Amino acid sequence: MTRMQRVALVALAVALVEGGATAALVAQAPGGRGAGAPGSGRGDGRGFAAGFALGQLDLSDAQRQQIRDITMQHRDATKALEARLQTALEAQRVAIETIPVNEPLVRSAAQDLAVVQADMAVARARLHADIFAVLTVEQQAKAKQLEEQAQARLQERRQRAPRQPKGQI
Question: Which stretch of DSSP H or E encloses residue 153?
Fold first, then answer.
């Protein structure tokens, strides 16, 4: 496998992870198969939306409803982005598999994918900000604390994970 093919494969893997994270976020919204916001039908109150552990923030019923509404609006707004993401992923896959390697096509497909990923990141940031605005000052502080704890756990797991030798994907 050439270096360019490896780079393209890594870019594709990153894109798939990004798409999976987006899909998980959408699935977690009310009506999805994930935990959703508290009171969204799961029953255990451990909802996550936009990265928040909402079940740990003692939300009022009004806040729960506002968050449900926000996540539903976000899900509706991101459907077109998700379709663009799938199209960009498929275009990149086709470009990568083209023999002989068509470097301009691979680069173009990777750039198109990056644009869609940036749009998805902006949409996630908007969702995060909209939900954060619903929280009280105390809930915001607790949410930040929970986010920091989650990041620390993630970092710890990354440090404990076995590393692959150089040259392997």
Answer: helix 137-160
